[in-house]
UniProtKB/TrEMBL annotation:
The lineage of its organism: Bacteria, Pseudomonadati, Bacteroidota, Chitinophagia, Chitinophagales. This is Uncharacterized membrane protein SpoIIM, required for sporulation. It comes from Flavisolibacter ginsengisoli DSM 18119. Signal peptide: none annotated. PANTHER family: SLR1478 PROTEIN. It comes from the Bacteria.
Length: 321
């Protein structure tokens, strides 16, 4: 069959599937089976044609709908982290990138301010923390702060604190997102001053490899939490073609998805901080392997996977004979 005739024969059904929702599970299953048949035929006779990509996109979209309509609670929970969170993150990649730039900028401000103002570190981190850290450095245990006698209590305390702080940063964003970014900037300055405190002692590299065992996950989650606050706060300001109240409702929903999606990340970061970071004198290859695994997870789950998932579920373009 010529490609033009193949398209003409099935075009009306494809357009119905694209534009209208199925009236029930049976109709959806029937549409899916027919699309799979069409796809198999198209891949056989027109493997490089646009119509093959078009049918594949339609079939993929229906497959996701079928998956999303499963009623098992465990599947809904899995769907949330497998589809909802990554797609929402991808939708707001630009805001997350802006939040990361702000983090990097103010981290630099904190680091270089500490290098030019001798009292800046104490002003930002507090005398007690600085005195304790300097005392630990003199004892040859610069990161003793992570060696709480009770690992489990430390894990629980850090986990609860970080989750609560992330929700606070998020809800502050209701005022056009500005307070969330201010909170992120202050946190970044403190971290820059913290890093400089070890830099002047010749421990900059060790501070990076130690703190980022848990900090890579923790800081990424904080950046995204503040970005979620901006998503909520700016949705009312930039409604697009929607009513402002509808845009705000959608922005709040997206922000909540992002912030709840970060909870497992905070749990994992707290596990590392409570049970792993205390062994910062571990062999360097093991230390770097842990750090690299965190980087790979972050890049995959928050950048690569959302982009691929979004590309596979985007609206197909109309095909003309």
């Amino acid at each position: 069959m010529r490609e033009g005739l193949f398209i003409k024969k099935n075009k009306d059904r494809w357009e119905r599937v694209q534009q209208e929702s199925a009236q029930g599970a049976d109709e959806m299953a029937t549409d899916f089976v027919k699309l799979v048949d069409d796809l198999a035929y198209a891949k056989t006779f027109y493997p490089t044609s646009r119509v093959t990509r078009y049918i594949n996109s339609l079939a993929a979209r229906i497959y996701l709908k079928i998956y999303q309509n499963r009623r098992e609670e465990s599947n809904r929970l899995l769907k949330f982290w497998r589809y909802d969170v990554p797609l929402t993150v991808k939708k707001h990649h630009t805001i997350i990138l802006i939040a990361f730039i702000i983090f990097a900028l103010f981290f630099s401000v904190g680091f270089f301010s500490a290098s030019h103002e001798p009292g800046f570190v104490r002003e930002v981190l507090g005398d007690n923390y600085v005195n304790m850290t300097e005392d630990n450095i003199e004892k040859g245990n610069p990161f003793g702060v992570y060696q709480d006698p009770n690992s489990f209590v430390m894990f629980m305390r850090i986990m609860v604190n970080n989750i609560l702080v992330s929700f606070i940063y998020f809800f502050r964003g209701i005022v056009l997102g500005i307070p969330s970014l201010v909170s992120l900037g202050k946190e970044s300055i403190r971290l820059g001053a913290f890093e400089h405190m070890f830099y002047v002692k010749g421990l900059a590299g060790k501070a990076v490899t130690t703190v980022l065992i848990h900090g890579m996950l923790e800081l990424t989650a904080i950046i995204i939490a503040c970005a979620a606050g901006v998503v909520m706060g700016t949705s009312f300001l930039f409604p697009g073609t929607r009513r402002r109240v509808d845009a705000f409702r959608e922005g709040t929903k997206d922000g909540i998805k992002m912030i709840i999606g970060l909870v497992p990340v905070f749990v994992l970061a707290a596990l590392f901080e409570g049970f792993v970071t205390r062994y910062y004198k571990m062999p360097l290859p093991l230390n770097l392997a842990l750090l690299f695994s965190s980087v790979v997870f972050i890049v995959w789950y928050f950048i690569i996977y959302p982009a691929r998932l979004s590309a596979s579920t985007q609206e197909p373009k109309e095909v003309h004979a």
